[in-house]
Amino acid sequence: MTDETGPWLVVGLGNPGREYAGNRHNVGFMVADLLAGRLGARFGRHKRAVAEVAEGRLGLGGPKLVLVKPLTYMNLSGGPVTGLAQFHKVPPGRVVAVHDELDIGYGQVRVKCGGGEGGHNGLRSMSKSLGTKEYVRVRFGIGRPPGRQDPADYVLSDFGAAERKELEFLVDRAADVVESVITRGVEPTQNLYHGV
Q1: Residues sharing a CB contact under 8 Å with residue 66, sequence separation 6 or more, in sequence order
Q2: What are phi and psi of 57, to 5 degrees?
Q3: SS3 for the chain, per residue?
Q4: How confident is the model at residue 48 (pLDDT cuts 50, 70, 90)?
Q5: Is the pTM higher than 0.85?
Q6: Which residues carry a binding-site annotation for tRNA?
Q7: Is-catalytic flag, 120?
Q8: pLDDT tens digit string along 100-134?
Q9: Which entry of 25, 46, 99, 120 is annotated as an active-site residue?
Q10: 155: alpha, beta or left, given left = phi > 0 and alpha = psi -120 to 50?
Q11: Hey, where's the site called Discriminates between blocked and unblocked aminoacyl-tRNA on this chain (predicted)?
Q12: How far apart are CA 22 and CA 19, in angstroms?
């Protein structure tokens, strides 16, 4: 049973550092930054976790959001996430991971709760550290790499010029999806956005 009044932990997955800022793998950070702007919150270094954190309420008197950008590299994201979940007393069912997804076409945003990690090192680290896969994922489609490009190189490369034209709009939609998960729930959000 989850506490219906407790905070939500929204984790943008990415890699710290300016050199990674525009990478496909960092779209989770982009969505977290936009959400912080919507909340009028600023990211700051957390005292007890290797992460940047911003806090605010979704609307007047709405649910509290704790936005997280782990400052470990992607494959070690689970430690800071678990530490912050324990610190804020957030159960896994109220943890939302926002991440890039190779298996979905560019620009599509999908939501699911639980399931596999699809080879995503950030999700794998979170599942291991939280001790469960039963948390919400907001999956931002980046598509498969062209030709024979190694997926690892592809996710660590910047969005292409054509993709960047739509990126701001798509990040905005992904932030809408996160808010919908929190205010409506996973299934209503799937019904609302999966046809788009």
Answers
A1: 7, 8, 9, 10, 53, 54, 55, 84, 88, 90
A2: -110, 145
A3: CCCCCCCEEEEECCCCCHHHCCEHHHHHHHHHHHHHHHHCCCCEECCCCCEEEEEEECCCCCCEEEEEEECCCHHHCHHHHHHHHHHCCCCHHHEEEEEEECCCCCCCEEEEECCCCCCCHHHHHHHHHHCCCCCEEEEEECCCCCCCCCHHHHHCCECCHHHHHHHHHHHHHHHHHHHHHHHCCHHHHHHHHCCC
A4: confident
A5: yes
A6: 20, 73, 75, 121
A7: no
A8: 999 999 989 999 999 999 889 999 999 999 999 99
A9: 25
A10: alpha
A11: 15
A12: 8
Residue 175, C-beta contacts closer than 8 angstroms, at least 6 positions apart: 31, 34, 35, 38
Length of the chain, in residues? 196
